[in-house]
Hints:
The protein is α+β, with helices and mostly antiparallel strands. The chain has 2 domains: 4-150, MutM-like, N-terminal (N-terminal domain of MutM-like DNA repair proteins, Alpha-Beta Barrel); 154-275, Helicase, Ruva Protein, domain 3 (Orthogonal Bundle). 20% of the residues lie in helices and 21% in strands. The strands form 4 sheets. Strands 1-7-8-6 form a 4-stranded antiparallel sheet. Zinc ion binds next to loops. Residues 252, 254, 256, 276, 278-279 line the site of zinc ion.
Amino acid sequence: MPEGPSVRQFHERCCRLLGALVLRAAGGTRQLSVQRLEGRQLQQCQVHGKCLYLGFGDVRGVDTGCPGNSSGGGGAGAGAEGGTARDPRLWLRFHFGLFGSVRCDELARAKRPNKRGDWADPVPRLLLHFPGERLLAFYSCRLCECGSPRPDPSTDILEPRFNMDQALLALQAARPISYILLDQRHFSGLGNIIKNEALYLCGIHPWCLGSQLGADTQRQLLRRLLHFTHDWLDRKRRRQRLQHLIYQRARCPRGHTVQRAQLGPPGGLSRPTWWCPVCQPLVPAPLG
Ligand SMILES: [Zn+2]
């Protein structure tokens, strides 16, 4: 599932086309009449956690927006949609589910034959053509029209303005730490890989309650997960693969057998979770 670092990268790809006019729009989405985007200018591109927002303006004098916003082309986050009457742009919100992606100036190719044995290339959910034969292709995502996003960088783990104190308070809840970390209200952009790896790095069992952790452990967990997330984004930019320590591993780096279970809050989404019963004992151990 694309987590914060992947969606940041999708955002960077979309930003390359800021200011460009949509010549043609196509794609397999039923959630939007994509032709409405034609003739509009890609004016805004924002990211918040696992959500990407694109704002398309009418260049026939109705829109007062300009390419690139005060956040330098859409670097800042956006937490919710405000839908102000002043913003005449058409805004789209993208969720990337389990396998979604965005490509710039290239189309995805089939990596393996489908069930019928055809090597059919994936069909973009939305395909935008721009001048100079440039394009943006959005795959396996959900998209819908939304109001203008309202910036709230304090909960986005990749934002410089991420609020550490607020996050520490959230970590103190009497809930399993593996549930707390995936709560997008407090840790926007944090996904299952970051959860598994950060808990392993800190030697914390995923069932451990946040309230059981000492203040030092909570701080260390927060620092490590932020470091891990920023490092992952840097690696993506350098086209380096991330080597998982525990996620989808049979053995931990120290050679112990790893356990796996579906963990999630009652009535909520459960996610596959891997942990080492030796390196991550159920009673929190002092961090080494
Ligand atoms: Zn181990």
